[in-house]
Amino acid sequence: MNTDYLRVFIFLILFTTTSFGGPFFLKTALKTKFVDNNGVVFFFGDTGISKSGLFKTNGTREGTVLIKDNFSKAITYIGDMIVLNGLLYFIQINSYQQMELWESDGTESGTILIKNLEGFSMPEEIINVNGTIFFGSTDYEGFYELWKSNGTSEGTVIVKNIVPGDGSYPEDLTAFGDLLFFTAFDEYGRREIWKSDGSEEGTTVIKAISLENSKATNLCKVNNLVYFSATDGTLGQELWKTDGTSEGTVLVKDIYPGSFDSYPNNLTNVNGTLFFTAINDANGYELWKSDGTSNGTVLVKDIYPTASVSYQPQYLTNVNGTLFFYASNDVNGSELWKSDGTKAGTVMVKDINPTNSSIVSNTVNINGILYFSATNGSEGNELWKSDGTKDGTVMVANLNPNGNSYPAFITLSESGILYFYATDGTNQGLWVDSAECSERLWSDLNLDCKVDFKDFAVMASEWMECTKSSCN
Ligand SMILES: [Ca+2]
Ligand SMILES: [Ca+2]
Ligand SMILES: [Ca+2]
Ligand SMILES: [Ca+2]
């Protein structure tokens, strides 16, 4: 037997007997979101000291490929990323502290700078409205305004200089059919609700709700309406709705009667019903729902049965028609709850941390299962999942046996592989959980659920990588 084959044989004998299940570490990565493009996931990985590059992965080590290195010699800040028509769009800050809009088709030559936007104010979000991407950016005077791009340099332009000589600071970007709804300051310093068709003349205030400042915020599209929080100057910050017309922009309900604010927040569409949190005198901060009418806007349940305590329910997430959220009662601390919209159907899923609160966050619906980060009080902040039952609410893995793994950016790719950011105490970056392998074989280096000669090729290439450069 050839000595190479003998080595492979020994290698396979050594490792096929050892296996473990659950997520595994794939690549050191920046703490930015993972964006799926038809089963291939884009992310920013580490390529050296203070250097990063754009990678793509299919969830295997051999399928994890550097697309383009060295966007910036300094630490790179990556803003929001979206995929549109098979192309990745992202904003990064270059080494001159200027924002740049980039596009990538997944190849190095196809990863191109669309436009240097020059300003430094990083937008929180890029959104797609019917094939046009919208984002906030600094204009040539250095003020933050609404921009759009069609993927070309000439087509990347300011939509409207809403407040010349100052910024309008667009926020709450929301797609509404062919239109963008958003909030922005007008020239009088009032934050109002706006709409835009992408043209300068087609970018207008929908309704100036208050002569002072309507403080419009928290937009959420449900069916053919956008709900939001605003004040008319008399009734305080309350729930409003709009169909995009001035006359169709009306108060839904004065939840905290009179000039007091109910501060509608966490607006979430659950299969056509709006859920949100609001405060009033009788109940404190609680879970509400609305069908768009005043009578149909009701408290779902007074979970913390005193008015004075204001633990606001958080992380409202639609999981195939069931609302999951994080809320506090007077017995269990803050824990995972679910609601079908009825009082009786609003229940704590599980007291995950029996001695304290479970610090639920990063909630996401993955094919009808809620994935989230939480702590049970003894094993640290780890990846959990829930099917809505007590027994079906379990820790996926204790990735960091000596502390917190802090899972974040939990993303399902179209190929059914779960990607997330976490640390096991040593390896910080991209972790993978593939549903395809019922159990993970330790020597399955290319992560195809089999141990064979392909794994030896991965081992050999990693060994060669390490001999030509300094691995430690
Ligand atoms: Ca009020
Ligand atoms: Ca209460
Ligand atoms: Ca608890
Ligand atoms: Ca742990």
Description:
There is one protein chain. With 472 residues, the chain is mostly beta strands. It has a domain at 321-443. It has helices spanning 3-16, 453-468; strands spanning 19-20, 24-28, 35-37, 40-48, 51-57, 65-69, 77-84, 87-93, 99-104, 111-116, 126-129, 132-138, 144-149, 157-160, 171-176, 179-185, 191-196, 203-207, 217-222, 225-231, 237-242, 250-253, 265-270, 273-280, 284-290, 297-301, 314-319, 322-329, 333-339, 346-350, 361-366, 369-375, 381-386, 393-397, 408-412, 417-423, 428-434, 440-441. The strands form ten sheets. It has a four-stranded antiparallel sheet, with no helix packed on it. Strand 27 (314-319) and strand 28 (322-329) form a beta hairpin. The chain starts with a helix and ends with a helix. 39% of the residues are buried. Residues 12-20 have low confidence and may be disordered. One calcium ion is lined by residues 332-333, 335, 351, 353-354, 356-358.
Defining key terms:
single chain, 472 residues, mainly beta, 4-stranded antiparallel sheet, binds calcium ion
Task: Describe the secondary structure blueprint for this structure.
Layout: H1 3-16, E1 19-20, E2 24-28, E3 35-37, E4 40-48, E5 51-57, E6 65-69, E7 77-84, E8 87-93, E9 99-104, E10 111-116, E11 126-129, E12 132-138, E13 144-149, E14 157-160, E15 171-176, E16 179-185, E17 191-196, E18 203-207, E19 217-222, E20 225-231, E21 237-242, E22 250-253, E23 265-270, E24 273-280, E25 284-290, E26 297-301, E27 314-319, E28 322-329, E29 333-339, E30 346-350, E31 361-366, E32 369-375, E33 381-386, E34 393-397, E35 408-412, E36 417-423, E37 428-434, E38 440-441, H2 453-468
Antiparallel strand pairs: 1-38, 2-37, 3-4, 4-5, 5-6, 7-8, 8-9, 9-10, 11-12, 12-13, 13-14, 15-16, 16-17, 17-18, 19-20, 20-21, 21-22, 23-24, 24-25, 25-26, 27-28, 28-29, 29-30, 31-32, 32-33, 33-34, 35-36, 36-37
